[in-house]
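Below is one such record:
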Amino acid sequence: MMTPVKAALLGWLALSVMPSALAERSARPVTLGYLEISFLGELALEMNAKLDTGADTSSVYAHDVDLYENSSNDDWVRFRLIGEDGRTIRFDKKVVRFALIKLKTGGVIRRPVVLLDVCVGGVAGRAEFNLADREDFDYDVLIGREFLASRVIVDSSDSFTADDSCESHVEKVSKRRDKRRKAAAERRSGANDD
């Protein structure tokens, strides 16, 4: 049984390893429906999400998952996400940990967990997502309590209520992407000048 002291220490530990998540928590939680549009990753891929207060962590339907070790023997994973519009984005991310997920049919499965940028209902931050095969689920993204806590109140009687569709987040992401592309083009043209 977990004592209140152990629970507090575990909570503190979880927050201490994810300072960016704590820094982006708003002073007032936003009320959203249990289904909302989310934007994932640095390229803000649009995906419908279920906001699930019964799940600790978040999960995303990842395609073509390929685990490997880099030259430093760190665990990394390549995978693809497919957005609502059919756009596919490939990711290459460091694995922050592995999660053991209990299966309904019994037993457990080991899934890689990565950090992804996420925005839902105007609430942006970073969250841990386990990479899952969610083909049999209605929604490719499940956003759990670790991201929702103190940021979002979930109204289970409503869906797709968000007024702010993360436009400012998507604009910031687009500007960062454009800057990186411009810098890369300048490096290429500078290399060609030599």
Summary: The domain at 32-185 is CATH 2.40.70.10 (Cathepsin D, subunit A; domain 1).
